[in-house]
Amino acid sequence: QVQVAESGGGLAQPGESLRLSCTADKSITRVYVVGWHRQAPGKDRELVAAITFEEGRTNYGKSVKGRFTISRDYAKNTAYLQMTDLKPEDTGVYYCKFSSGTLPPRDYWGQGTQVTVSS
């Protein structure tokens, strides 16, 4: 059973935009933060952006600040990552993670969606 599903990845040229979506199953409750992470070939997975699910406070990685925007729809259990002015170094597999404040706390990862930025 897929509990977290990403969509919206694909191929883009430098300077273009893509929007990623990530929806968690309704069985995942008490979500307190959602993060988008990416893993480039040969590199460690890194946090790109995060948002607190109720308050909507955001945090961004240095390399994407000013170009990417994270948002969420609380009612739909969905988070988004709007990516603009894409660069080749943004290429990688993008994963979202829902962190639940249940006891014990649990993290739910999606399967990932490929983003390739190339001319």
List the helices and strands and how they pair.
Layout: E1 4-7, E2 10-12, E3 18-24, E4 31-39, E5 46-52, E6 58-60, E7 68-73, E8 78-83, E9 92-100, E10 106-109, E11 113-117
Parallel strand pairs: 2-11
Antiparallel strand pairs: 1-3, 3-8, 4-5, 4-9, 5-6, 7-8, 9-10, 9-11
Defining traits:
119 residues; mainly beta; 7-stranded mixed beta sheet; 4-stranded antiparallel beta sheet; 11 strands
Explain this structure to me?
The chain is built from no helices and eleven strands. With 119 residues, the protein is an all-beta fold. Strands 2, 4, 5, 6, 9, 10 and 11 form a seven-stranded mixed sheet that branches. Strand 9 (92-100) and strand 10 form a beta hairpin. The N and C termini lie far apart (37 Å).
Task: Give a brief rundown of this model.
By secondary structure, this protein is mainly beta.
